[in-house]
Design brief:
Layout: H1 7-35, E1 56-60, E2 73-76, H2 78-85, E3 91-93, H3 96-100, H4 124-132, H5 141-151, E4 155-162, E5 174-175, E6 189-190, E7 201-207, H6 208-219, E8 235-237, E9 247-248, E10 251-254, E11 256-262, E12 270-278
Parallel strand pairs: 4-12
Antiparallel strand pairs: 1-2, 1-3, 4-7, 5-6, 7-10, 8-11, 9-10, 11-12
Length: about 280
Amino acid sequence: MIVVVPKMASLAKPAISSQCLGYLRRLAGIHSARLSPSFHQQVRGKKKNAKGPHVVNVRLLEDIQGYGRKGSIIPIAPGRMRNIYYPQRKAEYVTEAQMRTTNQKDLLAERDFSFGLPQTQPDPQPMEEMAIGVPTKLLTPKRTSEIIDAQVPSDIIFYRVPIAIPEPEPAPPEPVGNSINAIGGEAPLRKAPELEPSITRIFGSVSTADIVESIKAVLSASEEGARVVLAPEDITINEKESEDLGVEADRLKALGEYTIEIRVKGVDPLPRRVVIKVQEADR
């Protein structure tokens, strides 16, 4: 026997099952929303500021450079107050209650950054030069030579410390020959040669630049002499450039007297003498 199942019954069963599943899902969603609403929506609150105040009000117990005078109430960074001023008894904390009862003269003030700092004054020299505004006329070579000849002395003296060198002992006299004379006496002695005087070296040579500075120091005593233009190249040492004489190029390296020439372009050179003496202990 064959049982025939209608087609409509086989199709309706799956449809009912799908509707039931959908209903159960909607029902589960409603109940879960009621039980835990935060599961579906996250609510963020305002963050609290973890940092403390940026400044604290303090009363200075002494004058502090760059901050203020003793007794002033000023705002200061908490770290500086906590680590420096409070341990060193330079300032004390001021509470809100104390601020409300403070006298008018002790009201909160701003920090004085210029307190205790040296007051710098502008250099008046540039202002004077601007006020004068008169161009300086250069001296002629002839007038320059006349001023140098009239104001610079004949001897330009320097003092230096000599270098101590042990003097060599004189050699003993040598006999004329090894033979004995006919009379039986000893051979006559030959006189030892005299040593040539040696130069005395000094600590710190005297250069042409030193000579120019000394000349300028003399000329600066007068207004016209201060306008003289002189360079180390204008000084010529007439001595022979030899180490034996204490002269090396443009430097004098020994005690003694040296002849120099001051040259001004367009006129005859002016002779002068440089004297280097021993520096005394009290100089």
